[in-house]
Amino acid sequence: MTARFAATTAARAGLLLALCLVVLLLLGMRAEELDGRGDLGNRLAGPGWSHPLGTDQLGRDMQARIAAGLRGTLLTGISVAAISGLAGGLAGLLSGLWRSWPDLLLQRLNDALMALPLLVLALAVVAATGPTRIGVVIALSVAFTPLVLRVVRASTLAVQQEGYVEAARASGATTWHVVTTHLARNVAGPWAVVVSTQVGGAALAEASLSFLGAGVGGGGSLGALLGAEAQTYAFAAPWLIIWPGIVLALVSIAANLIGDGLAHSASPQPLLPSASKEKG
Amino acid sequence: MILQLSPAANYLARRAALSALTLLLITIIAFILMRVAPGDAVLAAMARAPGEMSLSAEDIESRRAALGLDRSYPAQYLSWMGGLARLDAGRSITSGIPVGSEVAPRIAATIELALLSTLIAGLTGTFAGAIAAWKGGRFDLVCRTLALAGLSAPAFWLGLIVVIALAVWANVFIASGYAQPWEDAWANFTRMGPAALTLAVRPAALVFRVVRISTAGVLGSDFVRAARARGLSESAILWGHAFRASALPGLTALGAQAVFLLSGSVVIEQVFGIPGLGRSLTEGVLTRDYPLVQFLVLLFGIFALLANFAVDVLYMKLDPRVRLAA
Questions:
Q1: Sign of dihedral through CA atoms B186, B190, B195, B196?
Q2: What is this model's ipTM?
Q3: Using one digit for the tens of pLDDT, what is the confidence trace for A214-231?
Q4: Which end of chain B is less packed: N or C, by CB atoms within 10 Å?
């Protein structure tokens, strides 16, 4: 699977993009060292030689601020994907294996959580946890877990229908053996696709929360850089809004491409039938 | 069973019963979420108005008692549900107005935004998807790149860019507020148009992807080959045969996006200054207005369930296989 993953165009593009983001992060950290507190004589300067991405209303270098924001965004996105991936993965696997009343109860709860618009749910949880880094991670994990649970449970059910699993069961294999050899391998593909995509989804959702005033403030994420402060100066200095948004979109694109690559390498058939060739 | 239902009606009735159960769970989730946190509406009001910081401990207790916040959680939940049954969702803690009257004038804006975006996304996504699969080549590549960008760009950021670009380059400032379409159609269009377009970008991109893949699949299938062998023109094959079969998955994708549209409307309303349900929710969350947020979460849940239900019904109408399987 690893070889197939690396062979897909989507995976290559995604990994390349992720590498670019890391370079951006390192360059920004260098800029941060050079100009930690900003220079007030150079406020709202457009992109130029000394500040490649311009400066903000306090003369702080935008490249440095974006690097700091990107760090916060990646931290949040990866934490949320890891927590919801683990919680949803385990719950989905167990729920799909032992289909009795806890499964029924969990499915109804999951349906209810999924019926709520993601941001509405996340906002309501943030109201409870408070707009801190941990509060936001908890809120987004609550909002993102149901999808992982649904995907993992569905593929657990599907794999159990397979002939080879029935054959293993019939020949006296323990549940543990079935889980570790058959289920884990076949459920891992769809699980990895969802979780990798959720890094991008969580980054975008975090930005929306920040934008609404319910996220981490003070430049602690790319979304926080797009908050009310930047909007005040947006007409005079559009770069305050443009750069963080583009970097945020790149994070999401990288996560989506890597997810696409995983989906390609996890599914046995090519996703797109080569129909257009037959047309001629 | 005394009542003999057709299989389709039976299926829909089962879905409706499940939806009711989901709704009940949503009320519990909404209720619990607003209460697990430290602090409450009285403390939040104090933090907002520093003049009232001098409230003594007894004052705070009496205010809590007046708002009913001193009772046990089950008692609070039951009284809320009892009120809902009598169509009374309580009063907003911040404004003192009944929640229903506070929310009612805001529903139209949010629904119009969601419907307009659905329409825009459905039309552009489906047609672009079908044409991209049919033509391939450069057009396909451009559409796919745009779709990837549209999927990845945060909706509120696109909105900000639209607002800034219009103001800086065209000197057009989008007015905030909402005008009823039947009262002032032009004012309604100029306010809702840019917002709906921005909100439609992501669902359009998703519908495009789904329709493109399914059209490519259908174009390679036997009945299309047969149609081609009969000498039908390429455009007759695309619009007469392939399009109908490939639009269905697009519809499903669009239906799945209904819940996203409600989510997206929260931020888009903030960007474009539209006084809709999403803005009420944001304000309610920041002021910890329990009755308001509880009611809005419930309302968003109802909208989402209705949207899913509508997609089910539409799908059964369009796809005979679903009707038979049900």
A1: positive
A2: 0.78
A3: 888 777 888 888 877 777
A4: N
